[in-house]
Amino acid sequence: MGEGPWLDEVEQKAWRGLLGAHRKLLQRLDAELQATQQLSASDYGVLVELSEAEGGMMRMSELAERMLLSPSGLTRKLDSMVEVGLVERVRCPTDRRGALAALTPAGRARLEAAAPDHVEQVRRNFVERLTREQLVLLGEALGVLAGGFPCGAGDEAEEASGTSSLC
What we know:
The chain is mainly alpha-helical. It has a domain at 35-114: Arc Repressor Mutant, subunit A, CATH 1.10.10.10. 62% of the residues lie in helices and 11% in strands. The chain has helices at residues 9-37, 41-52, 60-66, 71-83, 105-125, 132-147, 156-161; strands spanning 57-59, 87-92, 95-103. Strands 1-3-2 form a three-stranded antiparallel β-sheet. A hairpin with a 2-residue loop joins strand 2 and strand 3 (95-103). The protein is globular, with a radius of gyration of 19 Å.
């Protein structure tokens, strides 16, 4: 390897620990939600994002960004959710080229049915494995990391400035 400012032992341990914990936690939560609710963690995430959006709908590009998916990846994900009636696609009323993903009543009901299991799974696999002090420190540290990146669509800075819009 070439010369460079490599991570020292502490930095490397923290970085790899974050990546490994994230991967293992998401795998566990996905497997448990599939087993108890026959719902993937990513489908659950789409339902949560839409349930928290104004009017239960969100521009497709914003949803893709929030879900860390490409536009085509989101399209594939939504195809199966539309097929089972959890989500629908709606034309944007202010931009004929724009499309919105909208939570259906069945999608909201599915989210409400799955939420108690998901919360219990998060509590058991994450919250209860850390002390209260560790949770506070982790929350603060992750807040610093998240706050250090440019704001995207729907971020708190956009909402505070009043520039947030559905389309």
